[in-house]
Amino acid sequence: MSIVEELEKYAKENKIPIMQKDGILYLCNYIKNNNIKSVLEIGSAIGYSAIMMASSQNEIHITTIEKDIDRYNLAVQNIKKANLENKITIKNMDANEYSTNNKYDLIFIDASKGNNQKFFQKFKDNLDNCGVIITDNLSFHGLVENPELIQTKRTQKLVEKIKNYITFLDTNKEFKTTYIPVGDKISISRRIIDEQNNSNPKK
Ligand code: SAM
User: Fold this and answer.
1) In 3D, which of 25, 27, 21, 64 has the Cα closest to residue 45?
2) Closest ligand 1 atom, CA of 47?
3) Residue 110 and residue 107: Cα distance in Å, rounded?
4) How far is Cα 183 from Cα 162, in angstroms, rounded to an integer?
5) What is the pLDDT along the chain (203 residues), one digit of tens a residue?
6) DSSP-H helix ranges across the chain
7) Residue closest to 19 by CA, chosen among 37, 46, 1
8) Which of 40, 83, 165, 169 has the CB geometry, 3.0–4.6 Å to 116, for a possible disulfide?
9) Is the CB of 88 under 6 A from ligand 1?
10) Which one of 7, 10, 22, 42 would you pick to mutate in the ligand 1 pocket, going by the greatest count of ligand atoms within 8 A of its CB?
11) Does residue 22 have its Cβ closer than 6 Å to ligand 1?
């Protein structure tokens, strides 16, 4: 069994929420096709998506943040097992506490779903000129489109937050967002460039 298959099995057996297969494959293709060299990932869990992204391209570096100590420890072990320590830097902290001046080609938001907007705003200035912010789980297992299937108040609140995030993206004047119906639905947000001035209208 490959390390990737092992991680998929472990995640399934232990109910660790990792990206769905077609979602992560889409992301890896996106990385290859757009020559992405640097990624900031919010939410590593056991390192599955970081390992997949790091394996998709020769010259790439992933910085990934995980606040849960047990998942972080597992991710560290898995990254070592995959022999990708030189391509992945993992940090054990709350991403709300992380700040950096580094610029990234891609920022991947895959942490607590209620905090998407907070992380988008916190890290948007760490994007390189042509960089994108990708967010996972915008369908939230179909519940965003089918709210009648929601069974608990907690889930209802979460779905509300995801809907608010979608509204935030749709009305954002600085970024244009497209939605890709792969996995649990992802969004790709790209900074709008003022063609005439060849610069960001907000800058
Ligand atoms: N990207 C991973 C993958 O596909 O393999 C899955 C990430 S899982 C959906 C979300 C992870 O984000 C959880 O392990 C959770 O502990 C972590 N998380 C949630 N809020 C966080 C925060 N504020 N800072 C860092 N990590 C956070």
Assistant:
1) 64
2) 5
3) 10
4) 16
5) 999 999 999 999 999 999 999 999 999 999 999 999 999 999 999 999 999 999 999 999 999 999 999 999 999 999 999 999 999 999 999 999 999 999 999 999 999 999 999 999 999 999 998 899 999 999 999 999 999 999 999 999 999 999 999 999 999 999 999 999 999 999 999 999 765 555 554 44
6) 3-13, 21-33, 48-55, 69-81, 116-123, 153-170
7) 46
8) 165
9) no
10) 42
11) no
The rounded Å distance from CA 146 to ligand 1 centre is: 25
Span from the CA of 44 to the centroid of ligand 1 (angstroms): 5
CA 197 distance to own-chain centroid: 31
23, two tokens: 């979602």
Residue among 22, 31, 44 whose CB has most ligand 1 atoms within 8 A, to mutate? 44
Question: pTM of the predicted model, to two decimals?
Answer: 0.95
- For the chain, how far is it from start to end, CA to CA, in angstroms? 50
**75 alpha carbon – ligand 1 mean position (Å):** 11
Q: Is the CB of 45 under 6 A from ligand 1?
A: yes
